[in-house]
Specification:
eight-stranded mixed β-sheet; metal-binding; alpha+beta; DIOX_N; Jelly Rolls; about 30% helix; 9 helices; four-stranded antiparallel β-sheet
Length: about 375
C-alpha cells in the first residue's frame, strides 16, 4: 500500500513539474532530453500489434482513397461512384482519404507552416498562451487530459472553436491568425459537401445531416509531435475515437497515424495533397452503427523533424446546444431497433473529456 502511495505521489509531482514549465514536450526536446520521462511511459503491450495479421485480413492494406472530382462531378455516374466509395469506407473503416477535394494545396502547406511556426516560437512567447483554462478562446497546452490519463503523450497542441461563433482576430496568435481563419472557412465548405455525400450514402436526402445541424460547430486542433528520443516507450496520441460527428485531418508527410480494425493496427500512408476523413462517435450514434467510428492512435515521432497535423472536428463541443441526438428515425426499424439512447453534444463531450484517452469508447456509456 505504501509503495503505491509513493509511486502515485511521485507521478503527481512529476506531472505538475512538467506542466509548470509551460513549454510542453517541445521544451523537453529543446533542453536536450535523451530519455523519455516516466510520466510518458506506456505499457509495451499497448504499443505493438498483438500478433501477425491473419491471411484473411492481408487484403486490408489500408484505408481507401476517394476522388472528389474537385467537388464538381461531370456526370451522375461519377457522383454515384464517390457516394458508393464513401458508403463502403464509412461502414467498414470509418476512415478514408480524399483527393481533388477543392481546398488549394497552397493553403494546406500554409496551414501546416502556421502550426509549425507557432510551436517553434521562443519559449517566452509560447508561455504567454499556455493555459488549462478551457473557457479560453485559444488554448495552448500539452495533453488536455495530462492529469487524468494513464500516461502522457509525446505532443503539444493548440486549439480554437471556429464555428458557430468565429473568434475575433485578436483572440488568435498573430503568427497563424490569417491562415487559421481562411483554412477553417474552406473546411466548412468541404464539410458541407461531404455531409451531402454521406447523407446520400445513408439513403437520405442530401441535406439531411446538415439539417440536423451536424455542420453547426467546428473546433480546430493543431498538433505538434517533436522528435522522440525513445519512441518505443510512448505514443504521440493514445488510442481513442473522436467525439465529433466528422473529422477532417490535414497530416504532413511524416507518417504515424494508425487505425485499429478487427483488433489490428493499420498504418495510414501519406498520400500527397490528400485530407483524411473519419467518422466520429456522434455520427456512429445517429446512424445506429451504419457508419463506424474506429479507434486510432499516433505513434511517437521517429523522424528528426517535428510532425504536425491539423484536426478539424465538426461538433459544438461543450457549448450550449439543447438539441437531442439519437439514432435517425429513417435508419431504425423493428428489425433494427435503436442501439443508443439520446444525448446532447455537450453531455457527450463532457463525458468524453472527463474519461480522457483511456483506450475505451465513450459510446459504450450510451448503449441501450
Amino acid at each position: 500500500m505504501e509503495t503505491t502511495k509513493i509511486a502515485s505521489f511521485d507521478r503527481a509531482s512529476e506531472l505538475k513539474a512538467f506542466d509548470d514549465t509551460k513549454t510542453g514536450v517541445k521544451g523537453l526536446v529543446d533542453a536536450g532530453v535523451s530519455k523519455v520521462p516516466r510520466i510518458f511511459h506506456i505499457p509495451s503491450a499497448k504499443l505493438s500489434n498483438p500478433k501477425p495479421l491473419p491471411s484473411d485480413l492481408l487484403h486490408l492494406k489500408t484505408i481507401p482513397t476517394i476522388d472528389l472530382g474537385g467537388r464538381v462531378f461531370e456526370d451522375v455516374i461519377k457522383r454515384k461512384n464517390a457516394v458508393e466509395g464513401i458508403k463502403e469506407a464509412a461502414a467498414k473503416w470509418g476512415f478514408f482519404q480524399v483527393i481533388n477535394h477543392g481546398v488549394s494545396l497552397d493553403l494546406l502547406e500554409k496551414m501546416k507552416d502556421g502550426v509549425r511556426d507557432f510551436h517553434e516560437q521562443s519559449p517566452e512567447v509560447r508561455k504567454d498562451f499556455y493555459t488549462r483554462d478551457f473557457s479560453r478562446r485559444f488554448l495552448y497546452l500539452s495533453n488536455f487530459d495530462l492529469f487524468s490519463a494513464p500516461a502522457a503523450n509525446w505532443r503539444d497542441s493548440f486549439s480554437c472553436t471556429m464555428a458557430p461563433n468565429p473568434p475575433e482576430p485578436h483572440d488568435l496568435p498573430e503568427i497563424c491568425r490569417g491562415v487559421m481563419m481562411e483554412y477553417s472557412k474552406q473546411v466548412m465548405d468541404l464539410g458541407e459537401f461531404l455531409y451531402e455525400l454521406l447523407s446520400e450514402a445513408l439513403g437520405l436526402n442530401s441535406s439531411h445531416l446538415k439539417d440536423m445541424e451536424c455542420l453547426k460547430g467546428l473546433r480546430m486542433l493543431c498538433h505538434y509531435y517533436p522528435p522522440c528520443p525513445e519512441p518505443d516507450l510512448t505514443l504521440g496520441t493514445s488510442q481513442h475515437a473522436d467525439n465529433s460527428f466528422l473529422t477532417i485531418l490535414l497530416p504532413d508527410q511524416i507518417e504515424g497515424l494508425q487505425v485499429r480494425r478487427e483488433g489490428y493496427w493499420f498504418d495510414v500512408p501519406h498520400v500527397p495533397g490528400a485530407l483524411i476523413i473519419n467518422i466520429g462517435d456522434l455520427l456512429q450514434l445517429i446512424t445506429n452503427d451504419k457508419f463506424i467510428s474506429l479507434e486510432h492512435r499516433v505513434l511517437a515521432n521517429r523522424s528528426p523533424r517535428a510532425r504536425v497535423s491539423v484536426a478539424c472536428f465538426f461538433t459544438t463541443g461543450v457549448r450550449p446546444n439543447p438539441r437531442l441526438y439519437g439514432p435517425i428515425r429513417e435508419l431504425v426499424s423493428e428489425a433494427n431497433p435503436p442501439k443508443y439512447r439520446e444525448t446532447t453534444v455537450r453531455e457527450y463531450t463532457t463525458y468524453f473529456n472527463a474519461k480522457g484517452l483511456d483506450g475505451t469508447s465513450a459510446l459504450l456509456h450510451y448503449k441501450i
